[in-house]
Structures are given as structure tokens and as C-alpha cells.
Specification:
Layout: H1 6-9, H2 22-34, E1 41-44, E2 52-60, E3 66-74, E4 81-87, H3 101-106, E5 109-113, H4 150-167, E6 171-181, H5 183-194, E7 199-205, H6 212-217, H7 226-235, H8 242-249, E8 264-270, H9 278-285, E9 292-297, H10 308-316
Parallel strand pairs: 4-5, 4-6, 6-7, 7-8, 8-9
Antiparallel strand pairs: 1-2, 2-3, 3-5
Helix pairs in contact: 4-5
Length: 325
């Protein structure tokens, strides 16, 4: 392991600062979201199957950005279905339709969201002051208004996506889960934290977007965190603004949202992960107060984790049963 020993990780609580007005920051953000319409547009996809109907779903997110999701809806519905919302990895997109079919065939309605301005169909119309240099973590970091941070809007998009799914007549809002890997894992956790009364189960694999100062301390070049390295290299080479930068990043650090989560959490971690280091993940996991389980992959890094897909399906299968059954 290049990171801390496991015994130390299990006690680690992070070093990136939490802004003093963190609670107010997200309260104001959710208040802004509360006036967003739950209106959405459904367009049948070219890809269709015998077990599910596939749609492109579009909604208008905060700031007027057009957000795209895939929606995979079971063809046979004897009663309301549980719902799953999927979030993708950094720079990627919502993926192939066929990946959602096993869940749709079992009775889930699956919604997969494209993040703004990344590899999918969602647009990023955020206008910020200062350089954006490279990557999304630092987008908006030089704007004096911390509400201009890119990930603030993405976190709100996840909540709006869940609210839209749970508003559908055929979906049971009391049986909603979220799933994601890497960036997607971070978004699943942020969503569960910002919509705690709705999200019942969350599965996350090696989540991103946490404990930024620790990532910088570990010299995370050639990873998703590299943009922080390059920000200092090119825009603040003597680190005169270091305290200010990490303080502002605290607004979008998922470790500071973790204690709001009420969902049951299943977490897959690879102890040789050099893209999302274990310590940055434990900074979040150790703050979760709800029921949680961590599955350790000792000889694995940021890659495919065997058997985790089966464990994920079993974990979510509880949502197929109503509480009174």
C-alpha cells in the first residue's frame, strides 16, 4: 500500500477544511433548487428491447443548463417500480443502454445522468471569473462567489434527477437507490446526502471528490486530482493562496456531506487505488452515520472489482420488495 496502513485508515477523518458556513451554503443551494421545475421531456431512443422501453430524458437544471439522462423503463409493470439513479465516472457518460437491462428486467426503472459538459449530452453553461485551466474541480475556484463552483451545480443536478424519477406515476418514491463508480460514487453519496428522505440505498465504488488537501499531499499527478497540482503549478506556484483554495474546495468535498446520509451504504474499496487513494475515501466513509458496509479488495486498484456487480444487485434487490411484504 502506498497510503496509510488499514488500521490507521479506519480512524482517519480527513484534513481538508470544512467552511464555517457549509450548512448555510447547501441550504441556500437546495432553496434555489426548490423552485426548479420537475418538467422533463421524453424522447424514445433508437435502441429498444423486448424487456424495456428506452428514452432520452431532458430537464432544465439550475442556471438553465439542459441536462440529459437515459431512462430505461420495464415494459411489464403490475405495480409501481423501484427506481435506481446511476452516475458515471469522470469525463465519461451514462454508457450503453444494455448495461441497465438486467435491472429493468427485474422490475427497476433506471435513470442514468450525464454530467454537465463531460462526455455525454448534458450542457455546461456555467460562466465563471478567472481561469478554468484544466478539469472541473477547479472550475469556478477563482470566482469570489463559491456558488459558482462547477460541482455545486452537478450535485444539485443529481437531486433534481432523483426528484424527477420519484415524481413519475409508475415509480415508488419510497424505494429509490443510487449507484456510481469514482466520480459517480461521489455523486451518489452527494445525492444521498442532499436528498436523505428519498434515497434508501447507495452503492459506491472508490468515490472521487473528497479530501482534496490529502490528495495534493500524496502528489496525485496523472489522476482526476491532477488539476489541483496544475492549478498551483501554473497559477499559484508559491502557494500563496493555498489556504483559500482548499477552504473553497471544502464546499464540494463529499466528506463534509457524509453525516447527512440516511441510506444504507455498500462501499467497494481497492486498497492499491492510486487514483482515488484509500485515505480520501475513508475520510468520507468514517463520517457516515447510517448503516454501512465496506468491501475490501486488497490487491486491486482503480479498476474492475470482481463479484462487486453481483453484490450490488443483491443489495439493491431489497428495493424490489415493499416494506410491508
Amino acid at each position: 500500500m502506498f497510503d496509510m496502513p488499514l488500521a490507521q485508515l479506519q480512524k482517519y477523518t480527513g484534513i481538508n477544511p470544512k467552511p464555517v458556513d457549509f450548512a448555510d451554503y447547501w441550504s441556500q443551494a437546495l432553496e434555489e433548487l426548490s423552485v426548479q421545475s420537475l418538467h422533463y421531456e421524453l424522447i424514445p431512443a433508437a435502441f429498444q428491447t423486448t424487456v424495456a422501453n428506452c428514452y432520452h430524458l431532458y430537464f432544465t437544471g439550475v442556471g438553465g443548463a439542459k441536462i440529459h439522462c437515459q431512462l430505461v423503463k420495464p415494459k411489464v409493470q403490475k405495480e409501481k417500480t423501484p427506481g435506481l439513479v446511476w452516475f458515471h465516472g469522470y469525463h465519461s457518460n451514462s454508457g450503453d443502454w444494455v448495461n441497465k437491462l438486467a435491472y429493468a428486467a427485474s422490475g427497476f426503472t433506471v435513470q442514468a445522468m450525464d454530467c454537465r459538459g463531460q462526455g455525454g449530452k448534458s450542457e455546461d453553461n456555467l460562466r465563471v471569473k478567472g481561469s478554468t485551466l484544466k478539469g472541473h474541480i477547479i472550475r469556478g475556484i477563482e470566482d469570489p462567489n463559491p456558488h459558482q463552483l462547477y460541482y455545486r451545480n452537478v450535485f444539485l443536478d443529481t437531486v433534481q434527477a432523483v426528484r424527477i424519477l420519484s415524481s413519475m406515476e409508475h415509480v415508488d418514491r419510497d424505494r429509490i437507490g443510487v449507484y456510481g463508480e469514482s466520480q459517480g460514487g461521489a455523486l451518489a453519496l452527494a445525492c444521498a446526502a442532499l436528498e436523505p428522505s428519498v434515497i434508501k440505498k447507495a452503492v459506491v465504488l472508490y468515490p472521487f471528490l473528497s479530501d482534496y488537501r490529502r490528495a495534493q499531499e500524496l502528489d496525485m499527478k496523472n489522476t482526476g486530482y491532477e488539476e489541483i497540482h496544475y492549478y498551483f503549478r501554473y497559477l499559484d506556484p508559491t502557494h500563496e493562496r493555498e489556504e483559500e483554495i482548499f477552504y473553497k474546495l471544502g464546499y464540494i468535498d463529499i466528506q463534509h456531506l457524509a453525516d447527512r446520509i440516511c441510506a444504507d451504504v455498500l462501499w467497494g474499496i481497492a486498497l492499491e487505488d492510486q487514483k482515488c487513494p484509500p485515505s480520501t475515501q475513508f475520510a468520507v466513509y468514517n463520517k457516515i452515520k447510517s448503516k454501512k458496509e465496506m468491501v475490501f479488495y486488497y490487491e486491486y486498484g482503480h479498476e474492475y472489482l470482481p463479484i462487486m456487480a453481483d453484490r450490488t444487485y443483491t443489495f439493491f434487490s431489497d428495493l424490489l420488495r415493499k416494506e410491508n411484504e
